[in-house]
Here is the input.
Amino acid sequence: MSLYTDYLSEIETRKGEGLSPKPIDDGALTAEIIEQIKDTGNEHREASLNFFIYNTLPGTTGAAGVKAAFLKDIILGNAGVEEITPTYAFELLSHMKGGPSIDVLLDLALGDNDAIAKEAAEVLKTQVYLYDADMARLKEALDAGSAIAKDVLESYAKAEFFTKLPKVEEEIKIVTYVAGEGDISTDLLSPGNQAHSRADRELHGKCMMSEQAQKEIEALKLKHPDARVMLVAEKGTMGVGSSRMSGINNVALWTGKQASKYVPFVNYAPIVAGTNGISPIFLTTVGVTGGIGIDLKNWVKKTDEDGNPILNNDGNPVLEEKYSVKTGTVLKINTKEKKLYNEDGDKELVGLESSFTPQKLEFIKAGGSYAIVFGKKLQTFAAEALGVELKSAFAPSKEIHNEGQGLTAVEKIFNRNALGVKTDKALHAGSDVRVRVDIVGSQDTTGLMTMQELEAMAATVVSPAVDGAYQSGCHTASVWDLKAQANTPRLMKFMNDFGLVTGRDPKGVYHPMTDVIHKVLNDITVDDRAIIIGGDSHTRMSKGVAFGADSGTVALALATGEASMPIPESVKVTFRGQMADHMDFRDVVHATQLQMLEQNAGENVFQGRVIEVHIGTLLADQAFTFTDWTAEMKAKASVCISNDETLIGSLELAKSRIQIMIDKGMEHENGTLASLIAIADKRISEIKSGEVPALTPDADAKYFAEVVVDLDQIVEPMIADPDVNNADVSKRYTHDTIRPISFYKAEKKVDLGFVGSCMVHKGDIKIVAQMLRNLEAANGKVEFEAPLVVTAPTYNIIDELKEEGDWEVLQKYSGFEFDDAAPKQVARTEYDNILYLERPGCNLCMGNQEKAAKGDTVLATSTRLFQGRVVADLPEKKGESLLASTPVVVLAAILGRTPTLEEYKVAVEGIDLTKFAPPVQKPFDTKSVHF
Here is the structure.
């Protein structure tokens, strides 16, 4: 019984760490446990029985298959266990969600024993995770005259699996816990440096916020046993930065309800809130877990007698407290009235209409959004199989049709991909519909959870509706440590078997690719009308519309080829004027945020909306710099409006990159990559013929707001500053503080520079090489006053740099160059003042492996300003991660400080920076070095 004794050893180790036995997913271990249960004299029988009943993971895990088969034997009388009667065996099967358990229930329901068949049918009626093969069995039995099959299908046609669930509580008593002031990053809820433990829910739960916070939450639960704890972002937005399923899992673990007493550490129904609501991508994750997200609006702008905001000395609006949500405040949610009340229920504090839409109430009732997606499909199938009219038990898709109003770009994309829409009328923003998903991406630190979600929903193969799906290895690319060695190959094999193109080949045929997920998705998106779902907040393509999503939504998209979401409002961004020769396009990105805030009295109109950016003269690689950044603007997504010629150039570039993937041996046996090239060819043909031009909005489309960026105002490089010492805590670590380099008077010490990873393209790395050439020519040598870490996003870019002679220059000045044959097995903790050429991937930006030294001031091209992400704090000095363009970062590393404007101009003279001209002008030559 070696597996069981190994398991006992692991239990002892975990006990020393304050952890329970790890939930079992291994079929062989489960088989050993069953043999010990059968042996009534076995010393481990009682423990084995407990593990079998309460600690075996459901779905399509190996353990679930073995468990379901044994329960079937018990029901049929082929095995006897005193503690597990046939009725109890049926109860256990009912909690196993799908896969092998459904197979067993169908076998029993369609078998010869009438009594068993009827009992199995009653359990089947409660199940929702049925796939095409399961439905086909029921239809076949129905056609053969099975009364049981007819009975089950009639129940499905009425959606009794949903309608018979308990109603949502009308009143929910809550007690507040303030997680912090200002925006709350999902990194606080699930730190990136603990990504390796996300699939071990109990272990990962220990990293939420702090041990002290966890004790305080537990104390609140003891003091208010009749209330649920609500996590609050005071004076900020909850869940910024990423969707992070592990973050909401942690919140649910500490404050939610247990989903099933037979499945440990899987909780649901968390309640989270923010003064400014919930970040859009995180709000999707809240829905996945049947949770509640609340926009508190408890701090409002103070106004004068004319209704104008009163500003403080810094020019920011003065806020006044409308009502208190300090830790320990007891409040009441009325789900029927959709309002938040004080403890006594006699004072309305804020309306909660957006928290309790018909769709969200369904998620809450069903315990999460998955059950609703599967339920709708199951009810539709049953009605069709029986030949009866579908009378949907679910809230109808919200369809908004504004007669005489044109469509924005995102509205056009949603209309093209909408599923189950009742009319042919065009849908406008606010509509809540199912949509087809074209491209799906999974990344490695959330991939293990996506695996679990796919197993839990009993999915076995990627939906044929999905054009392309990719599993990356970028978030753990920097250090091939023991955790990566244990997790990554297992993840890659699962995903490859599921039908995804994978960065690492389970068969070892091609070189392991650690390319950044969003860069690969940007390449394999070959239609400007596509919808993309990716397991990373920076899933924001320059073609189509892309949504960063949690691991569960990614799993659902992979399994079903669809997603459900409202059509967002849009903000139109256009440009005027001309870029100065010494400016880089990254400065345009920063200026967009700055000018947007100036034009809207400090209000971020991008938050929760789609940014439709009219940037048609930049090919996909460069345009991605803008779309990628929109995650930090708290936008829900972005759509890039391209000229016909530019879009064709981007599609040709995508084709060439996909072909390289094929040439490297990455093609999946299902032919994914070849089919993407065919889709691109078709799209190019449509554009050239004029049949379907590049996506553009209608002239009479309606926008929430319009922002015009004046390029003439951008006269010096810009830096996004986390402003770590701002007296107002809520103003720290946002992307709203944009400063020109002259602000720093060449006095800001820089401890480390970072050029990477998804925010740079080939042209950025060429800029580094050219600056080194220039400095060498001027000074005879190059010396760094601070370390410079350079991380290219993809191997393709490195290959092209080698062909063009730039990589040789970088190698000349590097003190470290990655070696895939001997990757680092330990994260770097100290840096010398040299150039580091790191492996393609996320590197410092992710913060889960490599980090700057504590308390450092880092100047980076990345996107993350979060506290502790790129650099942690020292007691006496806060770590800072300031964001700037590539030439500014390189020059600052050489100088060891922020440069003056004149120093910068001299350093970039003659260098082909990333340029942009408004779309009215002729597109730049697509043979520029930047492509």
In short: The two ends are 59 Å apart (CA to CA). Residues 921-931 have pLDDT under 50 and may be disordered. The CA atoms of residues 445 and 618 lie 31 Å apart.
